[in-house]
Every structure is written in C-alpha cells, then in structure tokens.
Amino acid sequence: MKRLVKALVLLALTTLICFSMTACADGSVVNTKLTVNADLSGSRVMDVVISESVFNQNFSGSIDDLYNLVSANCPAELKFTHPADGTMELVFTLDFTDPADYNTKISSLYEGASSAIVVPDSVWGTGFSVDENVGSLELLAWLENLLVDEGYVPESNRNRIFSMGTNELIFNGENFSTGSLISVDRLDYVSIFGIDVLTGVNSLDSFDRSYVFSIDANSASSKEADIEEFFKAFEATGATVTNTTEDGKIIYTVSKSGLDANGLAAFGTEVFGGDTVTIEKMAEDDLSLFSFGNELKEAADYSSFIISTNGLEVNAYVSIPDGIKIGQNAGYYFGRDEVTPSENYPGYFHWDFNYFYSYTEPMERSYFIVKTYSLSDIATKTKVKGKDSFEEEVAFNFGEVPADAEKTAIEDRMRLKFAAEENSISVEGVMSEDGKYSVKTAFAGNVDEMKTRLEAVTGRSATFTYAEHYRTMALKYGKALSEKFSFGDFADDDINVTHELDMGAFTKITSCTDELAQLKGGKAELVGVNKVDSDVLAESFNVFGIAIYVCLVLAVLFILLAVVKSGIIKEVKEKIAAGKAAKAAAVAAQPVNVAPAAPVQEKPAFCEKCGAPRDADAAVCVQCGFKFED
C-alpha cells in the first residue's frame, strides 16, 4: 500500500512539473551560476526552482519523495541539496579544482561537453575568456532520463520538464550575465595562426628540434618589440632564433640540435612552460631480427600560447635519415623514400595535425623510430664428409657494423630464433680483417638433421637429399646432392647468396643445374638471389675398390718374391741347363758320316748357239750376243 501511495505521489509530482512547464510561466526553472576563482578553481551551481502554486494545486503529498528519488540517483560529479525551509528547489553543485577537472566532470555528465577557460598573462595576451558548448539543461539530461525511464513522465513530455532561467558568470569576483551557453570574452591578445613542430631524427636517441611560430602581423604591431625580446631570450640557452615577415605574418623559428630525450623535454619546457618527453625501448616483438627501436613519447602543453577561444593549430613535421624508419604505430614503419616531402620544409614530411585548446590535456605524440642493420650478402658452405655425414656454415655479412651492445643483441636473437642449443647450431659474431661484421652459424649432421637445421636457420622449408651409386669392386662410383633453401625473410630487398660446395676428396663434379656454377674438381661455387637451389652429380674414386686391386697386385708380387727367395727358380734353371748339357754330350758321342763331294761341272768352251770359241770368263758370245746361262 505504501509503495502504491509513493508511486502515485511521484507520478502526481512529475505531472505537476510537466503541467507547470506547459501551462504556467512559474514551472521548473533552472538558474545557473558559474564561479571561477583567481586560481581557476570554482563551482557550477544549477538551481531547479519549482513553482509552489503549481505544486500545491497538483500535489497532495510530500516533496520528500522527490528528494529521495533524486538523492538516490544523483551522479557522483554533483552534490545534491535542497532547502531546509521547505522551499521547492533542487540544488546541484559541481566543484572543480582547475579547468581540466571541470571539463572531465561536465563531459561525464554529458558526452562532448567542454568549457574553454583562457587566462593569459604574457606577451601574447591578457584578460580572460570562458566559452562553453553546452548549458545546464544538457548537464541535467540525466534527471530527465530518470523521470522518463521510471515512468513518471511520458516520452512526449521529455523536453518540457525544465526551462532555462538566468545564467551568471562570476570570474575572480566580477559578475557577468550571459546567455544559455556561458560565453564571456575579455581578452586582449596577439593572434598566433599556428605552431609547426619540426623534429629531425639523427639516430635512435639524437634529435634536432625547431618550433616555428606564425604570428598575425596586424595584432602584433603594438607588441613587436616585446615579442622579439621574448624569442631572443632563448639564445641565452643555446637556441638559434630567426624571423621573417611574409604575407601579413611574422614567422619566428627557434631551434636546437643534437638533443636527447632530456634535452627535448628541457627545450619544450623552456619554450612552452611544459613539455614531457621520454624515450622507451621498443618491445622485441615489434622489431625484426636485425632492428633496434625506440619510442619517443612527447606530451606537449601549448596552453601558454593559446589566447583566444579559437584554439591553436599545431602541425608536426619529421625528417628521416638514411638507415632509419619511423612510424606512428608499432609494426608499421616507413623510410625517407616512402613519404611525400613537405613543400614548406624541404627534407621533412608532414607527421600530424591537431587543434589545441587551453582546456585540453597536453598533446600526446609518439614517434616509433627503428634502425635496421641490412645484410650485404649471405655466404654458405656445404661439405660432404661421408655417405651420411655433412657440415654446413652460413655467414650473415652486414653492410654496417653495429654497436657492441647491438652485436650482442643480434647474436642472442639469432640463437633464440634458430633454437641453437636444441638444434646443435653454433652462432658466433666475428670481425674480419677489413673491419666487416658477420654472424656465422655452423652445424653438422646426417641428411635428416641437415634438413631440420637448415629450416631452423632459414625459417622456411628446405630440401637436403644425398645419394651414392656404390659398387665394391668398381674403381669409381656416382654421387648426387640436392640443396634448396631460401633466406627471403632476412631482407626487405633481394640479397645475393654465394654458395660453396665440397663433394669430398678424390671427386669430380660432372654436372650442376646452375649453368653459371664454377666447377673445379669436387668443388663448386654458385651465386643466387635470396636462395640456394642446386642439384649436383659427381664421380668419386672408389678407394676401397682400388685398394682391393692394389692388394691383389701386391699379393701376386709377394708370391713371386717368395718363390724367388725359396730358390725354386734357380733349381729349375739349373735342371734346364743340365738337360741341355747332357743332350749336347750325347750328340757329340755319335759317329759323323761325311757325304762325298759333288762333281764340279766345267763350263763349255764354245758358244752353244753359233759355235764360236768362248772365253772361260765371258758372259756373252762375242759373235752373236747370246747370253750364257752359267
């Protein structure tokens, strides 16, 4: 019963509020008083006044029921009170310590709410201004929602619950009447069109910094001497100050070079009165194998140069040297050749743009700066030690020598990447005689182990196969080796890979799929791009088979020598000689039969043809020319 009565009371009260808004000028009126003290602390009081006549006409219960509902649901940013004398008022007070605290609280009450409180006291301006983009009706929208959501006010009457009353600003004790959106401007200032922040990156932790101020020449005409004195004062701390005039602007540039994070912070504080800069090492997960990076974090406070409620335009520019890449986010970096140069500042490119107000937090900006040590080339060596025993060496040759700490880091990273201990891979950094730095990895194993370790080093799938065509008694046998592995993950651009192959002693390479390979005996030299891709055939002397044949020859020689040493040959020779002697003696003992001498035939004394006398020695007849036969 009590709950029903309470609900009826609240319903009657909210109906009363809506009726008073539509039918009577004495409805629920919101009066606002914003107080800003000299230290910029203050309060905002929103006083909701309900017409007593309307209340008495439409409500028969106690107003305490409404007070309890509001008290139970009042946001933490507000303090709710009501008069003890029974006056029908809802009083909401928002206390703040400074403009930033005030903006935080009103934006919590109404998304997008903001208040610009500007109080300059410098060469750039004097006075104050307060400018807000919402009024108290928006800041009390939560109360409208409460009454509608609880069912005490129809949705159609949502915008009739409250009406705007008076609005007053009390600034440092001085009263100002204003409209529904509080806006009071009592500024006398020099207009600054904008500030350009130029950061020259020299290395991971060395920077040049310039601040370029574009000032309205007309508004600065009465303060030119003061402005020049303001900027010239920075020369005492080592800054370079220049100024030019163009297109109705006076442009001052203040610069310092070779600054670390502390130097940047000190320079920013010197110019703006507040600038926090830190440098943090980037996480290993955000870097490649041969990269090192820092995140330069900057929180810049430009409020001392923001005089008008229009705010201040701030543009940032960055220059990038060779070998350095930079990004606004970890994981995405670009070099000098990958950006569009600024037309205003040669050698720089536009980094970001912001519009800055005095009531906002310091502008936060991050530069992710990355230096990557590039490889000049990769040299690999494969040696065949036996049928299932091999050795491999991979040398990563750098084009630039890293610092000692960076060398150690690179070697440790490679050991981790290759799982060096698990895969029995040695990793060692070396300096050559000509001052070049390399990281050499070496490992050995059988065919399967070589494939596994090549994949661990390259980070990609690899092929390593070997075969022999072996016959025990053959003087030669064939060998075949296939190697395919890639280093594409080690460089952004193409990289030369030289490969030396040693097929073993007493071997001659007969063919290679790389037509440009240099072959000499059992060795080959190949040059590829990003990878090794070769199939090699070779012939090797069969040492075991040759040894067998040598042993056979030696065995024969040994037998012959043994025979010689045993005297058998001498004995045989003696027996042969004795046999010949006995045969000769037997022949000599037999009688000799001498045959009678053959009769001697005398030559005729006359020519057989013509009968003419013939000389005993004549070969031809002197009469007829007949040729004698005997």
Protein described:
Helices cover 26% and strands 38% of the residues. The strands form six sheets. The protein has a seven-stranded mixed beta sheet with strand order 23-24-22-21-27-30-29. It has a six-stranded mixed beta sheet with strand order 3-4-2-1-7-8. Strand 12 (240-246) and strand 13 (249-259) form a beta hairpin. Helix 1 crosses helix 2. The longest helix is centred in the C-terminal third of the chain and has 24 residues, at 543-566. It starts with a helix and ends in a 41-residue tail after the last helix.
- Give the strand tally: 31
Say what oligomer this is.
single chain
Gap between N and C termini? 186 Å
Choose one word for the global shape: elongated
The radius of gyration is: 56 Å
Mean pLDDT: 85
Q: What composes the largest sheet?
A: 7 strands, mixed
Number of helices: 14
How large a portion of the residues is in β-strands, by DSSP E?
35-45%
- What structural class do helix, strand and pairing data support? alpha+beta
Strand arrangement in the largest pleated sheet: 23-24-22-21-27-30-29
Roughly how much helix do the residues carry, as a percent range?
25-40%
Contiguous runs where pLDDT drops below 50 for at least 5 residues:
1-26
Give the topology, please.
Blueprint lengths: L1 H22 L5 E8 L5 E8 L2 H7 L5 H10 L5 E3 L7 E8 L2 H11 L5 E4 L6 E8 L3 H4 L1 H9 L13 E9 L2 E5 L4 E7 L2 E12 L2 E11 H4 L3 H9 L7 E7 L2 E11 L1 H12 L2 E7 L9 E10 L11 E8 L4 E6 L2 E3 L14 E8 L6 E10 L2 E12 L2 E10 L5 H15 L1 H4 L2 E6 L5 E9 L1 H12 L4 E7 L6 E11 L9 E7 L4 E6 L5 E3 L2 E7 L1 E11 L1 H24 L1 H22 L41
